[in-house]
């Protein structure tokens, strides 16, 4: 794992953007995973002018790695949020955006392998240590993409609020992420400092499922100084 601590959220986002744009410059079909949420907001704002209507990026394929489908609706909240955060402003056509749904999730991993695999993936660190849709105490560490009933997640995480219109979660599991060529986690803000320290210091365990990602062979973690405020960077330098 390579840890990069940047001065602020702007610098963190800039570093992540350079990695993404570098991967996107390859002379082939490039597949990238993007995340919704608060952490990548500035990253996407910075990327849009570089990507919008650029012929050199016409072969880029975008994937979303989890979804909480609404009953009787075509798209869930992750699709909708990513449209607002990035895809609409960057003029990314829907046919180049791939997301799992009730019909295709069982074939999602094989479809990605047949498309050449994922070149680079951006993820965040959840406030409770979750990643993608992999939540505490209900993440099968030996899983590829899977479906989980929301009530099962709620039973072991009582703080999760009811979602009657979203009865289940579809998500890529840990084994799916281990296939990604370059995995990048971005973490920012003081409110993430405690869970970030735990993620770095604790062994792999179900109460903090993101710890499993430390096994990834090409894993870069980029954070700002606020998120790193409780750690001593010297403890995480490579020997």
Automatic annotation (TrEMBL):
Residues 14-214 form the Glucosamine/galactosamine-6-phosphate isomerase domain. It holds the Pfam family Glucosamine_iso. GO terms for biological process: carbohydrate metabolic process; N-acetylglucosamine metabolic process. Transmembrane segments: none annotated. GO terms for molecular function: glucosamine-6-phosphate deaminase activity. It comes from the Bacteria. Gene3D superfamilies: 3.40.50.1360. InterPro entries: Glc/Gal-6P_isomerase, GlcN6P_deaminase-like, Glucosamine6P_isomerase_CS, NagB/RpiA_transferase-like. This is Glucosamine/galactosamine-6-phosphate isomerase domain-containing protein.
């Amino acid at each position: 794992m390579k840890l990069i601590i940047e001065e602020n959220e702007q610098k963190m986002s800039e570093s992540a953007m350079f990695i993404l744009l570098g991967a996107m410059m390859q002379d082939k079909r490039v597949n990238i995973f993007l995340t919704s949420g608060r952490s990548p907001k500035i990253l996407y704002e910075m990327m849009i002018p570089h990507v919008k209507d650029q012929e050199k990026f016409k072969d880029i394929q975008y994937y979303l790695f989890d979804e909480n489908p609404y009953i009787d609706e075509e798209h869930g909240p992750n699709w909708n949020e990513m449209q607002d955060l990035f895809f609409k402003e960057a003029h990314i056509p829907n046919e180049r955006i791939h997301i799992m749904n009730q019909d295709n999730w069982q074939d999602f991993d094989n479809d990605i392998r047949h498309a050449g695999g994922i070149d680079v993936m951006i993820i965040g660190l959840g406030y409770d240590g979750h990643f993608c849709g992999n939540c505490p105490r209900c993440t099968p560490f030996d899983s590829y993409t899977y479906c989980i009933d929301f009530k099962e997640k709620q039973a072991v995480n009582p703080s999760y609020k009811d979602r009657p219109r979203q009865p289940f979660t579809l998500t890529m599991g840990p084994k799916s992420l281990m296939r990604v060529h370059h995995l990048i986690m971005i973490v920012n803000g003081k409110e993430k400092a405690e869970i970030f320290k735990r993620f770095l210091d604790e062994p792999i365990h179900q109460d903090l499922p993101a710890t499993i990602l430390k096994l990834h062979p090409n894993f870069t973690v980029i954070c700002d100084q606020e998120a790193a405020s409780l750690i001593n960077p010297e403890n995480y330098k490579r020997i």
